[in-house]
Amino acid sequence: MPQAQPLPELDPRFSDPKASAADWSDAAAQLRDAELFWLTTVRPDGRPHVTPLIAVWHDDCLHFCTGPGERKAKNLRENQEVVLTTGVPSLSEGYDVVVEGEAVRVTDEPTLRALADAYVHKYGPDWTFTVGDGVFVHEAGEALVFRVAPRTAFGFAKGDPFGQTRWRFAQ
Prior knowledge:
single chain, alpha+beta, Pnp Oxidase, Chain A, 3 helices, 12 strands, 19% helix, globular
């Protein structure tokens, strides 16, 4: 798991002189509360693949799930490096957070049960999963579950003052 409070670094090249580095706790709260994320994976031929999905923040990591036949699951069989992005579609206000890391399969039942509870708590009863044989089970089928521990994260403050913060995590 990543360290709880990495040191923030403000990048002056992309920040207003009035800006200060953001605290990781604020970015982690946004990751916890965000409803929608954009997942970037890499296809076997090297082209990027980006798709929206839901995710939960649990034990200082982002978690998402996908069907085993979906493009993102196929991509992850070859290359586990991913980027998860969340934020607001505005140039003049809000905050965006980008998390880079490795997507690692979660298969142990206690963790999967905790994550299934986290999905219901965050997204409601339509996102109820049972756990079976190292996967989530839903009326639509099985879903593989992945954990992304942040290796590097970026925060983009928009508006006044704008700023870019980078956090590096001990691995």
